[in-house]
Amino acid sequence: MIDTWHTLISSQKVVGISELLSENVMLHSPVAYRPIQGKHKVMMYLTASFYTFINDSFKYVREVRNGNTAFLEFEVVIDGTFVNGIDVIEWNEEGKITDFKVMVRPLRGVQTIHDKMNMMLESTI
């Protein structure tokens, strides 16, 4: 599952991510106070995240896998702001993502991401 995730990210195409999500997937986003649940809502946030995070500077710099959980540390520059973060991805026996947590730093990076994602989400709602 994680190898497929890496392929989708490196291709810089959001198409295909939906097939990796379970119906009851839960997303813990740094820009949302509460977890987002359900494939449709999570896909909206992941699409906004994809267009916010994925550019030529995005790269995973460290990865730890343990059973059905992966910790993927990333670095990216967004609008001139360096962002360092971790994706924690859990999946079920069918290879579908059940839980996705994104943690980012520094604060300026969180603010940049928040502003960009809010603009994208507001335009889709």
UniProtKB/TrEMBL annotation:
Domain of life: Bacteria
SnoaL-like domain location: 5-99
Signal peptide (residue range): none
Transmembrane segment boundaries: none
Name the UniProt record assigns to this protein: SnoaL-like protein
